[in-house]
Specification:
By secondary structure, the protein is of the alpha+beta class. The chain contains ten helices and 22 strands.
């Protein structure tokens, strides 16, 4: 069911209001997709004067993993265009109408996809013939707070064959693809991937879930509903973001994600009356929820007919719509509109052998750009064998900060100058490309990589005889395992570690700070 009354277009503010054309004549009260009311009820929708969301390269990289081939495969399976494997046997889904066997088979198909991605997967059984399909990825910081990405999988008409490609194999495929792409990524908030049943009868599946969630007091911070996202007859990239007054902040966030990550799409925020789609089940329970749907004025002519086939879809548009949805999901579930992502690369002299670096931890500090250079934020990072790691700073405000890092056996090292950080975006900094990346050029070139000096065993900021004495005693006493005396990371303190210390002590290596 999709029913919208008014559209408000504009990037920064409302420029005008217009009545949308009538979608289809009203045939019956149950078929709400054909309901279109001209009304004098105006809900004010506006974008924030200042964007809360900025482009984030990590969000973009995850969105880039969305595959058109994968999306199309899911749609072809769900529409019966191509046979698929369900329960270990080939099956062709001829219809997903609630009264047909294909409806239950489609639910099983979705469940098996969620299970194959390692999600906590289940049916929410409501009646003997009504079941939602749920896949959950638990958040590591806020496991009891949910971001829901959803779509209904049932379809129309009630004939033996009912492909339902645009309505709503496209939305369902976008949810499955989001699960595939994000199943191995950790998020602070829990993501629920949901496929609702019997939307066409009156939002039955989503109403049952929303009712239960409100009764239990579940914390749902956002619901992103996708319904009919595959038809763009005039190739203008337009889409509607359907909302109500209470969900306006979420609609604005989604609008910004679309314009940032899929700039050739043209979103417009619209308001809803009674009926519509599954997002309204959550709105009615006072959760923020929005609908992403193709432009109402360029609506599929194959709606609710046996001709709503895979071949009628605008596949490039469909891919962009799915990608925009994933970008918004990652932004919300990852809290990237508030966090700052930092990508860091460093070399450790003793740990780098010219090919790989021993994997180890470093402590990174972001410091004020003015004396006394107070610590503003910090993180413990585990460097890969390439020297790379990343972290999300949750409380960092926009500003310029020195980057300082330390390692168990290496000299403390600072960035050559303060680095600009913008809250909600990504920053990348590498110390391995040039000595000038460090303050005072305090790096050593080893086998093609600039590294921090190893040998500061006592962490006093100077590599000298005291460090040599510690390493010498460690070697004499056959010290093994994880130790600041082990300069090359082989878990043995011996003469090879002593050579590193002696070389740098002879060159009077010490910390150079601003």
């Amino acid at each position: 069911m999709k029913s919208k009354d008014l559209s408000y277009a504009g990037l920064a503010q409302i420029l005008r209001m217009r009545l949308l054309p009538q979608r289809k004549p009203l045939n019956n009260t149950k078929d709400m997709k054909k309901l279109f009311l001209f009304a004098a009820i105006f809900l004010g929708i506006s974008l924030s004067a200042e964007s809360q969301i900025t482009y984030n390269s990590y969000v973009a990289s995850l969105m880039g993993n969305v595959s058109g081939d994968s999306l199309n495969k899911f749609v072809r399976h769900l529409t019966g265009d191509t046979a698929c494997m369900i329960g270990g046997a080939p099956y062709t889904i001829a219809s997903r109408h609630y009264s047909k066997q294909g409806n239950a088979k489609a639910a099983q198909y979705i469940l098996e996809r969620f299970q194959s991605y390692g999600l906590t997967s289940s049916y929410q059984t409501i009646t003997s013939s009504l079941a939602n399909v749920l896949g959950k990825k638990t958040g590591y910081r806020y496991p009891n707070q949910y971001v829901i990405i959803c779509a209904h999988f049932d379809n129309m008409p009630s004939t033996t064959t009912a492909p339902g490609a645009d309505d709503n194999a496209t939305g369902t495929a976008a949810v499955i693809e989001a699960a595939r792409v994000l199943s191995t990524v950790s998020f602070p908030y829990t993501i629920l991937f949901a496929a609702w049943d019997e939307e066409e009868r009156g939002l039955y599946g989503s109403k049952a879930y929303a009712d239960t969630a409100r009764r239990k007091g579940d914390s749902i911070i956002a619901v992103l509903n996708f319904d009919m996202i595959g038809y763009d007859g005039n190739n203008n990239g337009a889409l509607d973001i359907n909302t109500n007054t209470a969900s306006t902040p979420l609609a604005n966030d989604f609008y910004q994600c679309v314009t940032l990550y899929q700039p050739t799409l043209v979103p417009q925020i619209t308001t809803s009356l009674n009926g519509g789609s599954d997002h309204q089940s959550f709105q009615q329970k006072n959760y923020q929820a929005i609908l992403s749907i193709e432009d109402n004025s360029d609506f599929t002519p194959y709606y609710h007919t046996v001709n709503d086939n895979y071949s009628t879809l605008n596949r490039p548009y469909f891919l962009k719509m799915a990608k925009a949805g994933v970008a918004a999901l990652v932004t919300l579930a990852g809290n990237y509109k508030l966090w700052t992502r930092f990508e860091f690369t460093a070399g450790i002299e003793g740990m780098w052998n010219g090919t790989v670096q021993v994997q180890d931890t470093v402590r990174v500090y972001l410091r004020s750009s003015v004396s006394p250079f107070a610590v503003v934020d910090q993180a413990k990072l585990y460097l890969s064998n390439t020297g790379y790691s990343s972290v999300n700073f949750e409380n960092l405000t926009s500003g310029n900060y020195y980057i300082q890092y330390g390692h168990r056996s290496a000299i403390e090292t600072w960035s050559f100058a303060p680095v600009a950080f913008t809250r909600g975006s990504s920053v990348s900094y590498s110390f391995i490309t040039s000595a000038s990346q460090a303050y005072g050029n305090n790096l050593v070139l080893k086998a093609g990589r600039y590294c921090s000096y190893s040998g500061d065993a006592d962490a006093d900021g100077t590599i000298d005889a005291s460090d040599g004495s510690l390493v010498d005693n460690g070697a004499f006493n056959f010290v093994t395992g994880y130790s600041p005396l082990d300069m090359n990371g082989d878990n043995i303190v011996d003469g090879s570690d002593m050579i590193v210390v002696e070389n740098n002590a002879a060159n009077y290596v010490e910390v150079i700070r601003p």
